[in-house]
Amino acid sequence: MQAFIFLLFASSCHCVMNFGRLQSAGVKGLVYCKGKPAKGVSVKLYEKEVMFDRLMDKGKTDKYGAFKLWGRAREWSDIEPVLYIYNKCGRRFARKVTIDIPSTYITHFGQKVKFYDVRKVELSKS
């Protein structure tokens, strides 16, 4: 009986995790350090969760400091995308800059991804 209850619970958890609305979000922009393009800076797009954030996409800035990320996640409620920029920019230790993506840039399955443009992020001032 315990095995039956466990299997029933496990299968229901699997269903909950694989259903929900497929949603997408995108972000793009330029990263600068002390007025110059920041090349090779790590940028990551996450979906905020209660316990652990879920990675949607990651990359590095190009020689112009530019980046473009997008990802998708399946969630019952609206996803909460957030951009993390990991950098040193003249500091001794690396730190993380956090930028929330507005909900108006969340699209649903079948819709074209909208990219939130953070424009120019100056790391030396944040």
Give a written overview of the molecule.
- With 126 residues, this protein is mainly beta.
- It has a single domain, classed as Immunoglobulin-like, CATH 2.60.40.3330.
- The protein is 13% helix and 48% strand.
- The protein is built from one helix and nine strands.
- The strands form two sheets. Strands 1, 2, 5, 8 and 9 form a five-stranded mixed beta sheet that branches. A four-stranded antiparallel beta sheet has the order 4-3-6-7, with no helix packed on it.
- It starts with a helix and ends with a strand.
- About 6% of the residues have low confidence.
- Its main location: secreted.
Compact description:
This protein is mostly beta strands and 126 residues long.
Top keywords for this entry?
Immunoglobulin-like, five-stranded mixed β-sheet, 13% helix, mainly beta, 1 helix, four-stranded antiparallel β-sheet, 9 strands, Transthyretin-like family protein, Transthyretin-like, 126 residues
State the total count of DSSP E strands: 9
Uncertain ranges: 10-16
Helix content: 10-25%
The whole-number mean of residue pLDDT values reads 89
Largest sheet: 5 strands, mixed
> From N to C, what is the helix and strand string?
HEEEEEEEEE
What is the level 1 CATH name?
Mainly Beta
Strand content: over 45%
Instruction: Tell me the span between the first and last alpha carbons.
Output: 57 Å
The CATH architecture is Sandwich
What fold name stands as the CATH topology? Immunoglobulin-like
Rounded to the nearest angstrom, the radius of gyration is: 18 Å
Structural class: mainly beta
What is the overall shape?
A: globular
What's the total helix number? Answer: 1
- Work out the oligomeric state of the chains in this entry: single chain
Family: Belongs to the nematode transthyretin-like family.
Subcellular location: Secreted
Protein name: Transthyretin-like family protein
Pfam families: TTR-52 (PF01060)
